[in-house]
């Protein structure tokens, strides 16, 4: 049995014997999606976060994502102008190389931002994927590419980011795919890697028959290739539409967060009336600490979507100078609810007040988003049934895995397969401490650092004692095995035994606090959190520092691994915000 394969009852922390290579097992297929962000989406550095939310939306739905980036804002025009200022007859290869800088720059920034949100991402460039072009060097046609490097990264669970617009000719010189060429890059890559969808993400939600700002402008829900090519509005690069037509590919055009893009390549062209303007969703935020602070920043960046009317804290003076409207900071629960929220976000933690507030919010018909695993493990079954009774949403994605969409992964897999076992590293704080200790830091110093970085719970006993991981394991097990599994069913031990120092490990091994659960032969669930020694290179060991990993073992022998950052402001805020956006879409649809 592989060392990190889940067994019926979790294995004890025993000394390693002999190093073996990491086990390999067939994993599940995933739909590949290509998202192209144009310069209207990447209008400025501040807007990159919106693109990251869109990537996360696909990732949490279990898709493998390729991102193709245009240059930011008016960068391409500025670079073209600069080339003209330097030379009235610019050499095509040098001109192309200068303009391609715009896409290199934006794609690197987007990769960094995706990583910072806790999603593993790899930046590749046209040379690495051998994106070969022919014809006019500044208005070239894509001819071939190596899909292998892209697929390899996707199979590793990484988002792949590529600069659009640029390729290489047969001598390796930089070429350009013409104005709007990132559209063509996206579709060409989608075709080459066998993607299920290719979406051009725009600042308007689709292809319109006139300027969408004009009253009476109508959106095409579907367009034939011919109608798209004949349309005076150039919403997608004509070369790209032509490529789609020549190869029978479907192209989507939609705004960020859209569930109703225009579909190009339909049999018939269909227009729909324009929807009315969205109104912002009224929000109450409970808590403004590590997680709440990040979620608030995301909401304030989208004032047309979110109207944050009240924020509950204990000590407003700590936060007042960071807010433009400090009057929304409140200490009275009644005042918070008097602001008439439709959506309540609970990020204060703990089980007492947080439980009362969520109950009150659900009772009042508010949708609720929470990151609170302690509360959900204790009272989640009752709270869910209250939410169902009231017909509202109770979303808790960030309660498990920080930015890693673990609950979603288990839910998706359980819908179609029998799950035999789950195992993982679920607590960022302890993993961070173990990583630091392996490099010589003391337990106390490492814990203090984890607290300072915002990974630890308010009372870190929950982390180091294994309770936080046990609560998360309980929430995962309810989806995988038994919807009513009590928290007390998990056997728990932590890492406190290492407080006085950790015995040396044999080379090639590492310590992890591992959570395991599986169904026993008698139908009961065995669940345990304990310190284990795992092989370097194994899936469990792949979770380093505050990262988290979950391995889902299917009854048919296949397995699925999800990995990313398990704690910290931005990964957790990304996950909470994805729930917030999901709830807001539902409120908007109803409103
Ligand atoms: P935090 O930094 O300690 O922030 C808690 C916030 O809640 C503070 O703004 C605090 O206000 C407020 N608060 C606490 N008790 C309150 C009370 N009785 N009345 C009013 N306000 C109160 O906590 P956090 O790290 O953001 O964690 C919040 C939740 O997210 C927890 O459930 C945690 O388990 C979960 N979570 C955290 C992470 C992470 O990486 N940090 C990851 C996933 C899930 P004052 O400052 O005024 O006291
Ligand atoms: N304290 C938790 C951890 C936060 O360290 O994993 C993320 O749930």
Word description of this protein:
By secondary structure, the protein is of the alpha/beta class. The protein folds into 3 domains: 32-203, Carbamate kinase; 281-401, NAD(P)-binding Rossmann-like Domain (Rossmann fold), CATH 3.40.50.720; 406-567, 2-Layer Sandwich (Dihydrodipicolinate Reductase, domain 2), CATH 3.30.360.10. Helix content is 35%, strand content 22%. Strands 1, 2, 3, 6, 9, 10, 11, 12, 13 and 14 form a 10-stranded mixed sheet that branches. Strands 17-16-15-18-19-20 form a 6-stranded parallel sheet, sandwiched between helices. It is globular, with a radius of gyration of 25 Å. The model is unreliable at 1-24 (pLDDT under 50).
Chart the SSEs and their pairings:
Layout lengths: L31 E6 L10 H13 L3 E6 L5 H12 L5 H25 L4 E3 L8 E3 L6 E4 L3 H8 L3 E5 L2 E3 L5 E3 L4 H13 L3 E6 L4 E2 L10 E5 L1 H6 L7 H10 L3 E5 L6 E3 L5 E3 L8 E6 L3 H11 L5 E7 L16 E2 L2 H6 L4 E4 L6 H11 L3 E4 L2 H18 L3 E2 L10 H11 L2 E7 L2 H11 L4 H10 L8 H4 L2 H14 L9 E3 L16 E11 L5 E11 L3 H4 L4 E8 L4 E7 L3 H22 L1
Parallel strand pairs: 1-2, 1-9, 2-6, 3-6, 9-12, 11-13, 15-16, 15-18, 16-17, 18-19, 19-20, 22-24
Antiparallel strand pairs: 4-5, 7-8, 10-11, 11-14, 12-13, 21-23, 21-25, 23-24, 25-26
Helix pairs in contact: 1-3, 2-3, 5-7, 8-18, 10-11, 11-16, 12-16, 13-14
The structure holds NADP nicotinamide-adenine-dinucleotide phosphate and L-homoserine (HSE).
């Amino acid at each position: 049995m592989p060392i990190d394969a889940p067994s019926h009852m979790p294995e004890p922390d025993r000394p390693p014997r002999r190093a073996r290579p990491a086990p390999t097992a067939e994993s599940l297929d995933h739909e590949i999606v290509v998202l192209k962000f144009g310069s209207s989406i990447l209008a400025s550095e501040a807007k990159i976060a919106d693109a990251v939310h869109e990537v996360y939306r696909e990732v949490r739905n279990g898709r493998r994502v390729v991102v193709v980036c245009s240059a930011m804002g008016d960068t391409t025009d500025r670079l073209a102008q600069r080339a003209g200022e330097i030379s009235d007859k610019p050499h095509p290869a040098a001109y192309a190389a200068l303009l391609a800088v715009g896409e290199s720059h934006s794609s690197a920034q987007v990769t960094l931002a995706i990583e910072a949100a806790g999603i593993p991402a790899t930046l590749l460039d046209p040379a690495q994927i051998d994106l070969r072009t022919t014809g006019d060097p500044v208005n070239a046609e894509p001819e071939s590419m190596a899909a292998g490097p892209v697929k390899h990264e996707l199979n590793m669970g990484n988002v792949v980011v590529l600069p659009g617009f640029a390729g290489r000719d047969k001598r390796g010189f930089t070429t350009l795919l013409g104005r709007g060429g990132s559209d063509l890059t996206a579709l060409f890559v989608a075709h080459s890697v066998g993607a299920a969808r290719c979406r051009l993400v725009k600042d308007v939600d689709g292809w319109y028959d006139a300027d969408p700002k004009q009253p009476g402008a109508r959106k095409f829900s579907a367009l034939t290739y011919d109608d798209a090519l004949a349309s005076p509005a150039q919403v997608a690069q004509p070369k790209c539409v032509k490529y789609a037509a020549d190869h029978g590919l479907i192209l989507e055009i939609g705004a960020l967060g859209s569930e109703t893009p225009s579909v190009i390549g339909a049999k018939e062209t269909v227009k729909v009336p324009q929807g009315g303007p969205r109104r912002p969703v009224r929000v109450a935020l409970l808590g403004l600490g590590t997680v709440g602070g990040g979620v608030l920043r995301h909401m304030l960046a989208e004032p047309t979507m979110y109207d944050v009317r009240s924020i509950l804290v204990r000590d407003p003076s700590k936060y007042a100078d960071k807010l433009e409207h400090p009057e929304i900071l409140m200490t009275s629960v009644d005042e918070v609810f008097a602001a008439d929220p439709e959506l309540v976000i609970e990020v204060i933690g703990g089980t007492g007040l947080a439980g009362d507030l969520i109950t009150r919010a659900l009772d009042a018909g508010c949708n609720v988003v929470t990151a609170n695993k302690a509360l959900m493990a204790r009272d989640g079954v009752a709270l869910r049934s209250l939410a169902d009774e009231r017909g509202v949403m109770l979303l808790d994605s960030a309660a498990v895995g920080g930015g890693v969409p673990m609950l979603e992964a288990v839910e998706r897999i359980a819908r179609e397969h029998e799950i035999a076992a789950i195992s993982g590293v679920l607590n960022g704080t302890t993993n961070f401490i173990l990583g630091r200790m392996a490099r010589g830091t003391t337990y106390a110093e490492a814990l203090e650092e984890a607290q300072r970085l915002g990974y630890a719970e308010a009372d870190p006993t929950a982390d180091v004692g294994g309770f936080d991981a046990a609560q998360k394991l309980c929430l995962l097990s309810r989806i995988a095995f038994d919807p009513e599994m009590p928290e007390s069913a998990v056997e728990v031990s932590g890492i406190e035994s290492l407080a006085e120092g950790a015995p040396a490990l044999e080379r090639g091994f590492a310590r992890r606090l591992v959570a395991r659960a599986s169904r026993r032969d008698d139908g009961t669930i065995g669940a345990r959190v304990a310190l284990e020694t795992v092989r370097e290179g194994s899936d469990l060991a792949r979770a380093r520092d505050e990262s988290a990993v979950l391995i889902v073992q299917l009854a048919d022998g296949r397995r699925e691994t999800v990995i990313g950052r398990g704690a910290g402001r931005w990964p957790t805020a990304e996950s909470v915000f994805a729930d917030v956006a999901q709830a807001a879409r539902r409120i908007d649809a109803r409103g």
